[in-house]
Amino acid sequence: MIENLSQEVIKDGRIMVIKHSSSIAFTPAFPFFLRQVAELIENGHGSAFTSWDDDTTGIIWGEIDDKIVAIFAYHTDQIKYKILNVSLTSVDKEHRGLGIHTILNSYFEMIAKRLGCTGTAATVHPNNTIRLKSAEKDGLKIAYHKLYKRL
Length: 151
What we know:
The protein has 151 residues and is an alpha+beta fold. Helix content is 25%, strand content 29%. It is built from three helices and six strands.
């Protein structure tokens, strides 16, 4: 079910409609999500496998003039630890620098609190400097480094 959360004025004065679904499946934001996953894989910032489950991945998105311009996807697999994990965030290149990520993050934190979480977490590729900067602005700190070796 799609929930209309609110409307926000972005830095250039336009109105952005904020929407949410607790399941990413069958949402109008799903194609945007998939394009961003493909871009991360092509840029070397993501792994070429399906890492989400439609039933446990929710999504918040922003629309301007009925066009999706940003997403904030999350997964609930750590809810039992009271942590809501970010799956993927993205703002369309044409709409960056307008405060959209910050707005969507505030709604993500609202959803986390609604679900009874006391914290949020994100996994970010070390070369994804744009996301590392936005994560820092969101108040996320490195808790530990996860190392990986392909065999």
